[in-house]
Inverse folding.
């Protein structure tokens, strides 16, 4: 098959058409609209960088960006820690290994929206009744403050994603050469030493993959945010994805929301690329 | 010594698994309680296992229609993503040229674009062409699903020797026949991975259907769940029965396909 053959283009046609109309054209249009006073119907006048200048003074947007960053950093650390721990548990010589894998992975099959609703019930009702029973006031009125809303999202996300990350670490752990670990054992390396000097360096590529996934998933989070806290109280747990959605479809500020979306794209792209670059370099050094 | 250590690990694992299932347990037992019983006690099993909440939730959710909509959209989208992405990846992997490299790069780089960045123009453009319906939604899923699917197929195709294509050509098969009779069947393992990753994503997607589907009766499960939940936030017994209903199809799917699902997810992430 050659590029100038008709069959080449026929094989590519369906996805090219879909990608062009769904991703490429909207991306270019969006970039164009972000420099105008577009209201969703009429393009309006060209305003240059005005939308972009405005968003750097927009406290609600900046707050959502800061909240998202904090949430992502804490979640990435927790999810990777729990995910790796679960992977180490289920790859040791235990009888219930496959049953445990199935269990830890389960939340990932259920949509974030539904998981958020389930946890809303737990935080609001179960925590309140347990708090009352044991006399811990701190368990009551969860999700009603910025702090508890933040941790609510972190708990939900860690519970959901740790099983996914576990699966990735398992793939690498099971690929480790057994002779190497046994040899170290014979040479008298302790469990922490084996972990520090053999297992950890060898699963470093898994860390690159899982960090990329956790970071992009937590940074772009929308469904869980919507169903667990809906951004409340007073928009204090509103993440960037939700803030952009509301600017566009609640306030009808289409061009302005689009400028935010472009900034969002740049941030996501930069974080993803920098993160992969740094991790790749670290892998080589080890 | 070794044995004792393993027992400790096993006990820890089981304890964590119970903790992991606790949210589902709480959802399940409370879905059988009355409003009052939930108010009094959220942790014990219900006094009586009554299906009243389920009957109401089933009707309010219009569950069979909603389930059918989700099935229809997921199945059609995933089948088309699989077929079209495999075809495209085949062309890109067999015709090595600058054009192929460029197109492959274009497809893969689309993965970096967060949905929010294209969401607003996408909805307005499709709205102008009267495409905010189930057909439009499936078309969008093909566009968004193509990147990862082509990436995975492309990787697998590079391991399929070209001599296979050539042998079939000598026997008189054309491109189309070579692909469907020889290549596509060989790709079965990666097809399972591609299908599973797309099923999980499309089945659970909320944001895109919420923007595209605006006629009553065409809602998918997550979309209907959102409206249902909004109406029943003060009536947890009904809300929980609805959530349990929404999860049942996934649990059935997981029960029958757990091995392929976990393998598919792991292959998809690692490759």
């Amino acid at each position: 098959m050659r590029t100038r053959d008709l069959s080449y283009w026929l094989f590519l046609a369906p996805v090219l058409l879909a990608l062009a109309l769904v991703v490429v054209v909207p991306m270019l249009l969006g970039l164009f609209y972000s420099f105008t006073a577009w209201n969703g119907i009429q393009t309006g006048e060209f305003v240059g960088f005005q939308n972009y200048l405005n968003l750097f003074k927009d406290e609600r947007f900046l707050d959502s960006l800061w909240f998202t960053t904090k949430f992502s950093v804490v979640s990435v650390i927790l999810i990777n820690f729990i995910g790796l721990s679960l992977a180490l548990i289920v790859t040791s010589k235990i009888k219930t290994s496959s049953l445990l894998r199935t269990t830890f992975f389960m939340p990932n099959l259920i949509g974030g929206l539904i998981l958020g609703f389930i946890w809303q019930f737990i935080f609001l009702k179960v925590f309140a009744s347990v708090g009352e029973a044991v006399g811990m006031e701190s368990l009551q009125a969860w999700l009603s403050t910025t702090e508890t809303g933040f941790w609510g999202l972190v708990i939900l996300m860690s519970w959901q994603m740790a099983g996914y990350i576990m699966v990735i670490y398992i793939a690498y752990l099971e690929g480790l050469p057994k002779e190497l670990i046994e040899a170290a054992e014979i040479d008298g390396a302790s469990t922490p030493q084996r972990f520090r000097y053999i297992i950890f360096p060898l699963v470093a590529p898994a860390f690159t993959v899982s960090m990329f996934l956790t970071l992009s998933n937590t940074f772009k989070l929308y469904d869980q945010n919507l169903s667990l806290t809906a951004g409340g109280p007073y928009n204090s747990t509103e993440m960037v994805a939700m803030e952009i959605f509301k600017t566009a479809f609640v306030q009808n500020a289409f061009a302005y929301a689009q400028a935010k979306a472009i900034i969002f794209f740049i941030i996501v792209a930069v974080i993803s690329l920098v993160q992969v670059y740094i991790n790749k370099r670290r892998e080589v050094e080890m | 010594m070794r044995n004792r250590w393993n027992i400790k690990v096993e006990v820890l694992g089981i304890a964590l698994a119970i903790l992991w299932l606790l949210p589902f347990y709480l959802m399940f037992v409370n879905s059988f309680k009355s409003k009052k019983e939930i108010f009094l006690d959220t942790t014990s099993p219900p006094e009586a296992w009554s299906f009243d909440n389920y009957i109401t939730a089933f009707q309010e959710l219009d569950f069979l229609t909603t389930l059918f909509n989700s099935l229809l959209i997921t199945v059609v989208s995933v089948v088309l993503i699989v077929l079209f992405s495999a075809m495209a990846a085949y062309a890109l992997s067999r015709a090595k040229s600058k054009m192929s490299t460029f197109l492959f790069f274009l497809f893969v780089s689309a993965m970096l674009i967060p949905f929010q960045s294209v969401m607003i123009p996408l909805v307005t453009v499709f709205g102008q062409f009267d495409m905010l319906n189930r057909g439009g939604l499936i078309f969008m899923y093909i566009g968004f699903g193509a990147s990862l699917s082509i990436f995975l197929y492309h990787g697998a195709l590079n391991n399929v020797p070209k001599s296979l294509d050539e042998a079939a050509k000598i026997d008189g098969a054309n491109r189309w026949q070579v692909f469907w009779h020889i290549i596509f069947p060989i790709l079965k393992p990666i097809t399972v991975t591609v299908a599973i990753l797309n099923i999980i994503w499309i089945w659970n997607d909320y944001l895109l259907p919420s923007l595209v589907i605006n006629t009553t009766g065409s809602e998918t499960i997550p979309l209907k769940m959102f409206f249902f939940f909004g109406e029943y936030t003060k009536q947890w017994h009904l809300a929980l029965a609805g959530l349990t209903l929404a999860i049942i199809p996934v649990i059935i799917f997981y029960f029958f396909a757990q091995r392929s699902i976990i393998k598919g997810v792991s292959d998809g992430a690692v490759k």
